[in-house]
Amino acid sequence: MDSILVLLHTEDDGTLRKASLEALEAARNLGGVLSVGIVGGSAGPALSQIAGCGAARVLVVEGQAFAASRYSSDCPAAVAIFEATLPGLVIAPCTPRWARSLPGAAARMGGVADTHVTGVQFADGQVEAARWFYRQRIEATLRREQRPWFLLLEGGVAAPFVASGDSPAAEPLNPAVKPRSEVTGMVMPQGGGQTIRPEAELLFVTGAGWTKKQKDGAVHIDQAGKLILDFLGKADASLGSSKSLVDLSGEGHAVLPFLSHLNQVGQTGSTPRHPKGLATCCHGEEPHAVGWRFIQERRAVNLDANCGWARGKADVVYVADAFAVITRLNELLAKS
Ligand SMILES: Cc1cc2nc3c(=O)[nH]c(=O)nc-3n(C[C@H](O)[C@H](O)[C@H](O)COP(=O)(O)OP(=O)(O)OC[C@H]3O[C@@H](n4cnc5c(N)ncnc54)[C@H](O)[C@@H]3O)c2cc1C
User: Fold this and answer.
1) pLDDT given at position 240
2) What is the CATH number of the domain that holds 318?
């Protein structure tokens, strides 16, 4: 078995996200000598989250220069940790930050990288990784001779690692970086607030129906927006959308201002993993339902009893007006 380096980065508050702890657990399940590298502004909280993980070495690149995601600092940080450990395999979560910088680090090390890996195991004396191709229609199992092999794992590949005991001692590294870009802040989508919450129990999906003429012959976009945001806040749900609805904004139609293509779920969108999903005003077309593959309990609200959800794609379909259903749900949630 190859030696393994688990490369993690911290969040703004210094902690590790769930996907990082899942990547750590996936690496532990492979066996092999394990090292952990952490990059971020301050690694203290992260170190307590990996306590008891059994890593032979823990290396840290920390400081203001490494607080924010930036290729010209993340790539040298990853390379420095790699050179100190010289592993055969590098396991990392497929976060936007690592997806931007680790393939470059792999190239500098003469290695290869696979992103969006959905499974990894050690079988018949070899490491095998699973990955989807052709817009998520074909799942392949990959083996590679070339080392180092960087594997960037999607969320949900393993249970998150649970810490126990004292934080491990960390070896600090200080790679030289000369960033030509300065991170000055974050710009949120119009409408404010974070609507994509990967850790939420519920995925709430909005479809184009919210913007269509309703039974009184009028559209009710403002009311739809208020109902949806109210529900998201009360249920602490993550917001997904059908492609039709997010496309409307690009075409200049009246739309829900807090939606962007980042919310799009489906064949050409994301494949989120939540225990439950509720689709509203969305037809349940195949390219959309492809993105629901990992949603365990699926329900839909649609006026049309013949919508796609009713054809085996949802566990429960409520044939009802979503405006009325969500209004009532919000009332019930306000009382609870
Ligand atoms: C190659 C390809 C890739 C694609 N990839 C994706 C993808 O990744 N993601 C994706 O979403 N789509 C994708 N699509 C598009 C997809 O096929 C559908 O066109 C799209 O998902 C439909 O969106 P919708 O259900 O919101 O809209 P519509 O089909 O317009 O459905 C609106 C629904 O709202 C219902 N409705 C209206 N008012 C109410 C109300 N008051 N209460 C309850 N229900 C109501 C209607 O009955 C209707 O069923 C792809 C298409 C292709 C060809």
Assistant:
1) 97
2) 3.40.50.1220
